[in-house]
Amino acid sequence: MNTKKIIQFHKSSILHDEIKEVVDTLKSGWITTGPKTKRFEEDFRKYIGCKYAIGLNSCTAGLHLALAALNIGEGDEVITTPITFPATANVIIHQKATPVFVDVKIDTLNIDVSKIEEKITSRTKAIMPVHFAGHPCDMGKIMDIAMRNKLSVIEDAAHAIESEYNGKKVGNIGDFTSFSFYATKNITTGEGGMLTTNNDELAEKARMLSLHGISKDAWKRYGKEGFQHWELFYPGFKYNMFDIQAAIGIHQLKKIESFLKIRKKYVDMYNEAFEDVPEILPLKIKGRIKHAHHLYVIIIKTEELNADRDEIMSEIQNNGVGLGVHFRTLHLQPYYQNPNPKSKIRNHRLYKRGMFPVAEYASDRVISLPLYPKMSVLDVKYVIKVVKEVIEGFRK
Ligand SMILES: Cc1ncc(COP(=O)(O)O)c(C=O)c1O
Questions:
Q1: Residue 119's Cα: distance from chain center in Å?
Q2: Helix (H, G, I), strand (E, B) or coil at 133
Q3: β-pairing, 193-197 with 52-56?
Q4: For ligand 1, mutation pick of 78, 170, 182, 237 (most atoms within 8 Å of CB)
Q5: What is the architecture, at CATH level 2, of domain 256-393?
Q6: Is the overall model pTM greater than 0.90, yes or no?
Q7: DSSP E strands, 102-250
Q8: pLDDT in tens, 291-305
């Protein structure tokens, strides 16, 4: 392969309308949380069809606020998946609670719901499913388990803004759902997130906690309604979205379904192209769902080849194709392997290889291929050609 083509793993689609809105915000004299954040929250709330949407500086912040609003803390356990970004489990630990991992299913890399109940103890307070790559988890079963065991459900929907489960939009199912607008996500505000809920009390508490735990938003305090003192109700966090972010988000949201249409077309191209490559296992679509197609993840059956995942990745990258790994399983990361002898808090467990065989198999074999609207059909064809040639070169 002798060509100079370079395809980045991701490029954002920021166009003239986002730029114009940001400039308008900068010139307006009000750049932190204010009218544009309110507008973006309202647009997002309508898109999801939920009662409350709280603009934040990240999805991580939303997951953390959800736990805090639900009073999940020291001694509590939260069930989640090890095939996720560290943020999902980190926030559980920030609350001094314990993440309890459950293995995933090989076809979607979502949590294996049949293994959740055996992990429930008297300390379990919540389930935190992750809609991996944009494929919603089996929320019917998760909500049923949660109801029978009186557990809360906090959905990590960092990948799943457009997703639906059995005709219901993600963001309307669990107690809280947290979305991400990080730079590589389906729509972006650079950094940013949104927390949704249909519960009045939880919404009020999460919103207050998102801005120090005080009762009035700053932009209202200095507004036309006359001066109002704030009051402190909780020692909260500084997690608010601000208007420069929201200015981008307002216009990104308008394009969300047209972006998805392009990604879906590329997913179909990838799926079709890899049908005749027995060493490549693309993920599957299971049940009556709408997939957000955030990532295109393949599992390479390296046991059938002469190279491991990292060697295969290096060869693909040497041919100009940017790649990602989503994810190397959390339970084999140093933090979960080595106990901190000084820690008095029971907030991590010792995990060993062999405990989650499916997560471990996938962890050593997953590769994410480029998938974004700024790619052209020719780019997708080039990625396919490179991946196929590299796999062929490593055949036994
Ligand atoms: C599954 C998952 N959860 C949470 C996050 C955190 O999102 P954010 O960067 O918006 O905090 C990410 C980010 O990549 C993610 O992939």
A1: 23
A2: helix
A3: antiparallel
A4: 182
A5: Alpha-Beta Complex (3.90)
A6: yes
A7: 124-128, 152-157, 164-165, 168-169, 176-180, 193-197
A8: 999 999 999 999 999
